[in-house]
Amino acid sequence: MTTNSKEAILASARQIAQSHGYSGLNFRDLAAQVGIKAASIYHHFPSKAGLGAAVARRYWEDTKSELDTLFADSRDPISALREYPKIFRRSLESDNRLCLCSFMSAEYDDLPHEVTVEVQTFAEINVAWISKALVAAGAARPENSEAQARAIFAAVAGAQLIARSRSDISMFDALIESYRAKGLLPD
Amino acid sequence: MTTNSKEAILASARQIAQSHGYSGLNFRDLAAQVGIKAASIYHHFPSKAGLGAAVARRYWEDTKSELDTLFADSRDPISALREYPKIFRRSLESDNRLCLCSFMSAEYDDLPHEVTVEVQTFAEINVAWISKALVAAGAARPENSEAQARAIFAAVAGAQLIARSRSDISMFDALIESYRAKGLLPD
DNA sequence: TTCGCCCTACCAAGTGTTAGATAGGGGTTG
DNA sequence: CAACCCCTATCTAACACTTGGTAGGGCGAA
Known about the structure:
The structure is a homodimer. Chain A is mainly alpha-helical. Helix content of chain A is 72%, strand content 0%. Chain A binds a DNA duplex through residues 1, 3, 5, 26-28, 36-40, 42-44, 47-48.
């Protein structure tokens, strides 16, 4: 059995947090989903704040891996950028879940500092990747690529949030399509 | 204290919910802010769900009034549209608060149905107004004005969320500026 | 034995909510 | 007029439950 409880906790905690946020994440439900008791979580994580930070950190690590793979596997930066919104789409496909970073951004005022740090890192990872892709695609000059990247990130996050509030993935698709029509995202 | 406790409760509850969400809204803190006891809230509202719905309803009623006034007072629809993001900016100016609708969209899974309804109405009010302004300005054809309006609404909400996560209003301004540069918002 | 992993059994604080009481004001009625 | 009753608005006190967190022990494997 070894230590895959820790991984199971991280995975379940991530799912719960993407549905109910950090404040909606509680040890008893989490433990039940993993198949252990609440107190056992403390053997793997020091506190709720520590768990939250670990979940957020793992979240951006996974996202970074996925983005780097996407960039490397795409035939060109433009087609990589075209697929970027799919990452957010998949959250919605998974029981209408929200990006962990978006949920925690809303909860900003009530987040332990160690969690906030990881949330901000997620945003930075995304913006840096989009910025890199924009420059590589020749779609932005290096001096304002970060601003454009941030606009894309914010717009896609907004689209996901609005689509979630309607529980309607097709609304997400329509919003992304509108962004493309305006040239905010590549066609 | 105040001659009208019900209004004071609504106002404080709105502030709290824009900072901590529906789940972060609790009767004891709310009552303390108003200057009464938690149990007294039940004289004015039937339950937390009822209070939440009343707050969300008042929120979109106020927003609708403000939008209608803005439309009527502007010299033309374009200048009205230009000022639209200021409504979201003001939330950030008020202690980095989020749009109530955005916060509650994140909390979608844990919201009582009566609250969800009001949240969706807020979105509809906004989209309808933007759509009307776009058509009046000749910036969109009636058959796709709603799609464009929704894109604007989602993008502005996203910008507010990202700016909040950094506690940085200038980031909101920069995002809006990027949207303008792309023609998503009028110059 | 020691250590990793998990358990049972708690605890204090906080949650929405209810019951029952109190004080004051405004009518209606004897 | 005064006695009565109801309504409004608030209170205190408690309920049942959930929360994150702690103390200490059991058990299998190295």
